[in-house]
Amino acid sequence: MSMYNLSLLEIVLIVLIFSLYFLPFLIASLRQHKNILAIFLLNLALSWTFFGWIAALIWSVTK
């Protein structure tokens, strides 16, 4: 038996959570933002604070 026996629902939830966490980076990627690397690093480092996530989100939608 596998140590990680995840159901389909658990896998979907994990993918959804990661997608939401990296939403600012995904938006910046789709918009081909000129500061995409900086947005990714901010998103990676500070999004857990929520204020960092909001800052990355605002930055990703601005020119």
Written description of the protein model:
By secondary structure, the chain is an all-alpha fold. It has a domain at 21-61. Helices cover 70% and strands 0% of the residues. The protein has 4 helices and no strands. The chain has helices at residues 8-21, 23-30, 36-46, 51-61. Helix 2 (23-30) runs parallel beside helix 4 (51-61). The longest helix has 14 residues, at 8-21. The protein is elongated, with a radius of gyration of 14 Å.
Morphology call: elongated
If helices are DSSP runs of H or I spanning 4 or more residues, what is the number of helices? Answer: 4
Major beta sheet summary? none
Low-confidence stretches: none
Please report the distance between the alpha carbons of the first and last residues. Answer: 51 Å
Structural class: mainly alpha
Q: Give the quaternary arrangement of the chains.
A: single chain
Q: Percent of residues in helical segments?
A: 55-70%
Using the CA coordinates, give the radius of gyration.
14 Å
InterPro entries: Phage_imm
Pfam families: Imm_superinfect (PF14373)
Protein name: Superinfection immunity protein
Keywords: Membrane, Transmembrane, Transmembrane helix
